[in-house]
Specification:
The two termini are 35 Å apart. It contains 12 helices and 10 strands. The longest helix is centred in the first third of the chain and has 21 residues. The strands form 2 sheets. The protein has a 6-stranded mixed β-sheet with strand order 1-2-3-5-7-10, sandwiched between helices. Strands 4-6-8-9 form a 4-stranded mixed β-sheet. Helix 2 crosses helix 3, helix 3 runs parallel beside helix 4 and helix 9 packs antiparallel against helix 10. It is α/β, with parallel strands linked by helices and 270 residues long.
């Protein structure tokens, strides 16, 4: 089970690799469970400040759910399928969406179904020129179940999302950029360097500020502007008495680079 998601940590960046290359990194129940365990560990690890997520081999980021396993749950009834499949997948994408440290998806190949839903859920994504995307659940006679009917429409708009959801058509990484699903497309051999470069540009800044920004955007996205502004103000109020803000202001006034003190866990608890 521990091999379903590979981990490597270097320079405050944890790289998680979905590791079922013979199954195009399909999301089995065991893989999802291990993924969630690792996110729990990373959240409290003070040495890790950014996460990069990718897939093993060059063919796939993730082909989506393990259909053979899922079909067995369906055969046992809707309640079992909801418990074992739908709720498990929704827990994963909700965890990714609300994670307090930045997560960058490095989409190295096809990202279909659940793989596309993971890309929708994480805050940042870079795609290889070889990547491809699809919402193919309709080909199975079902809607997406890991949040794909909700997040894609929020990213791309109702009509553009529905075209993809109702046809199941494959779309290019360039189209994914247009839809707001990924931030940029790069040459395949530049995918991980580009992801690490983006991570490095984030690491220059206060981890507390990063967590506050992630929290404000995620919580405020589906609220009214008035409610969103209250959330934004709340996040500032948490940051205002901290050493990070004092250091940031002092560094700006002194025309020097800030050196942020304290640990991630202490800051996140503020």
């Amino acid at each position: 089970m521990s091999d379903f998601v590979l981990t490597e940590t270097r320079d405050a960046i944890a790289t998680l690799t979905l590791n079922r290359p013979d199954k195009l990194n399909a999301l089995s129940y065991a893989l999802i469970d291990r993924f969630l365990e690792l996110l729990d560990l990373i959240e409290t690890d003070e040495a890790i400040r950014v996460v990069i997520l990718t897939g093993a081999d060059d063919r796939a980021f993730s082909a989506g759910a393990d259909i053979h396993e899922f079909s067995q749950s369906v055969a046992r009834g809707a309640d079992v399928a909801m418990r074992d499949f739908v709720m498990r997948g929704q827990r994963l994408t909700a965890r990714l969406e609300a994670f307090p440290k930045p997560i960058i998806a490095a989409v190295n190949g096809l990202a279909f179904g659940g793989g596309c839903e993971i890309t929708e859920a994480v805050p940042l994504a870079i795609a290889s020129e070889r990547a491809s995307f699809a919402k193919p659940e309709i080909n199975l006679g079902m809607p997406p179940t890991f949040g794909g009917t909700q997040r894609l429409s929020r990213l791309a708009g109702r009509k553009r999302a529905l075209e993809l959801l109702l046809t199941g058509d494959v779309f290019s990484p360039e189209r994914a950029v247009e839809l707001g699903l990924v931030n940029q497309v790069v040459a395949h051999d530049q995918l991980m360097p580009a992801a690490r470069d983006l991570a490095g540009r984030i690491l220059r800044h206060s981890p507390l500020a990063a967590a506050s920004i992630l929290r404000a955007v995620t919580r405020g996205l589906n609220q009214s502007i008035a409610e969103g502004l209250l959330i934004e103000g709340e996040q500032f109020a948490r940051v205002a008495p901290t050493a990070d803000l004092r250091e940031g202001l002092d560094a700006w006034i002194a025309r020097r680079k800030p050196a942020y003190p304290g640990s991630w866990s202490a800051k996140a608890a503020v």
